[in-house]
From TrEMBL:
Protein name: Riboflavin biosynthesis protein PYRR, chloroplastic
UniProt keyword Oxidoreductase, yes or no: yes
Organism of this sequence: Parasponia andersonii
Pathway: Cofactor biosynthesis; riboflavin biosynthesis; 5-amino-6-(D-ribitylamino)uracil from GTP: step 3/4
Keywords: Chloroplast, Glycosidase, Hydrolase, Multifunctional enzyme, NADP, Oxidoreductase, Plastid, Transit peptide
GO molecular function, one term: diaminohydroxyphosphoribosylaminopyrimidine deaminase activity
Tagged with keyword Metal-binding: no
Amino acid sequence: MALALGGTQTHLSPLLCRAASNDNYSNAPIATASHARDASYVRRAAELADMSAGSTSPHPNFGCVIATSSGAVAGEGFLYAQGTKPAEILAVEAAGESCRRSTAYLNMEPGDCHGDHAAVAALVEAGIERVVVGIRHPLQHLRGNAVRALRGHGVQVDVVGEDLKSKIIENARKSCLLVNAPLICRAASRVPFSVLKYAMTLDGKIAASSGHAAWISSKISRSRVFEMRGRSDAIVVGGNTVRRDNPRLTARHGGGHMPMRIVMSQSLDLPEEASLWDVSDASTIVVTQRGARKSFQKLLASKGVEVVEFDILNPRDVMEYFHDRGYLSVLWECGGTLAASAISAGIIHKVFAFIAPKIIGGKYAPSPVGELGMVQMTQALDLIDVCYEQVGPDMLISGFLQPIPDLTPVIPSVEETYAIDPTVTPYESKIIFFYKTWDPYGAFSNFSPHPIQMPDVNGDYATWLSVEHFYQAQKFVGVDDPLAQDCVERIKSAKSPEEAARLGRSMQRQCPDLVRSDWESAKIDAMYRAVKCKFSIYPHLNSMLLSTAGYVLVEASPHDLFWGGGRDGEGLNYLGRLLMQLRSEFLGESSASNQNSFLAG
Ligand SMILES: NC(=O)C1=CN([C@@H]2O[C@H](COP(=O)(O)OP(=O)(O)OC[C@H]3O[C@@H](n4cnc5c(N)ncnc54)[C@H](OP(=O)(O)O)[C@@H]3O)[C@@H](O)[C@H]2O)C=CC1
Ligand SMILES: Nc1c(N[C@@H]2O[C@H](COP(=O)(O)O)[C@@H](O)[C@H]2O)[nH]c(=O)[nH]c1=O
């Protein structure tokens, strides 16, 4: 058996522990043997998908297992990050010739948001006879497309819960739902998937009465927290936690990605020096009330900390804002005051409580959740799908505060949401917005996984994994410094467009001297050349671009006011403009060539 690992994270999330333990292949006397085998491989596909949790964001997690007719595993793979090779291709490559007449098990229907049917084509071309799909794609515009395409190629497709029904297979489906719970919840609620995590003593305190809290949970529990951070797009704390703990909130387990740190502070009465203001390892955003301490906002900005003002600072508005910025999952590591506010706002989906076997006492020692206004025990919020796990000396109890939304009533599309909610203004007609690569026009994003070949200064062609890789590296090209050349190489070999963007932006921020002096005037041309190459070499992308004729193209980035259109249309939308310019060039070329062939005919 070959395992095509797309990445390095190998820890199986506690997300899966309950579903996994309930569904043991060897303990399934009442299920048919074939259902038991299907269930065990679907669950394995979910385990594989989970290995890159956090790294694929905002993309879902995909895993694939290929099993021969005798039941042997021939190949496995998982998506490492957005823009890297799909799980199905990795598994097919690992299985080689054994793919013929084998079954492929997928935790989730492939998304095919780039219109190239790469995953479906790999399975079909490899001679896969049957595909078992754990869950259909949660996003409506992608749902069912790959299942239909596979069936159209004569592949037998069994969707769990539709074509395969039994208790054991239903438990396997649960594993698939858990792995992509962030995407499913986010799609249904229009806020990121939020997890509240805290460490408390056996007598229910998250700090001593003095406010001292380092440490309640054990070292091993805290290193588990580092992994959780690595699986999240952002960590949230309140102002008081910054004042009391001076936290770093970084993922320090060696590997994985570094989440954004978000501080919610109404007063902005925060220390001038704090670990979170050092943005060399990870970025920080402070969200606050409009008009709060303008001089302190300036100080934060001078340290590279972004400040975002809200009319009224509440967890729901803040999470809706970060949803619009593309965040998939958020870890709340705040104290009880903010935790209560977030639970009351209905934006916490899951809770992780580390309980340490120690007692601190203290009448005024804080507890994990402040005032919720409940007076009867019958009002208590019951956790769903509770999981118990011993971590070193501590006990970790986790569970959902809200059920994972059912996929069967289809999550409404953007248009349907407007129809249901008349307060939401529909997009103006004749505008096509694109941003995330899973959107209907997601292939227009620079993060779409379309490698390009571009000439260097000597005219030699090199392959770049995405437009974003090329664009970020151009910042440092031609600078006479080995460190700048090293930046170019590191960006070039970044595993995903996100990694390339992160590297390019952080090196530009940290070492402005390495950025070429003409960058501001050269960047549009660099982008134009890269985008032109992409839309010239991929015929299906070229057709997609031409099909938008007559529409204004807007990159719906709420925060990039140069390449994107901004939150309220205040952005310059240079990426949209370049695409429209290219579109007219291509249309001009095709009408000229039509005219030539007409004349020739
Ligand atoms: N053991 C554990 O797991 C943890 C323990 N702790 C401990 O908890 C204590 C801090 O607890 P606590 O003050 O509750 O925590 P937080 O600081 O995390 O949350 C409260 C603060 O959040 C800010 N805030 C912004 N918007 C809101 C809102 N809508 N509702 C409520 N708060 C908002 C305010 O900051 P501002 O005042 O700046 O306006 C407020 O003071 C410390 O002793 C710390 O050590 C903290 C985290 C985890
Ligand atoms: N005290 C406490 C926690 N506290 C949380 O961790 C933050 C400190 O993180 P860092 O500075 O990155 O090490 C702190 O501000 C609070 O949010 N967490 C735990 O897992 N166990 C503990 O006992």
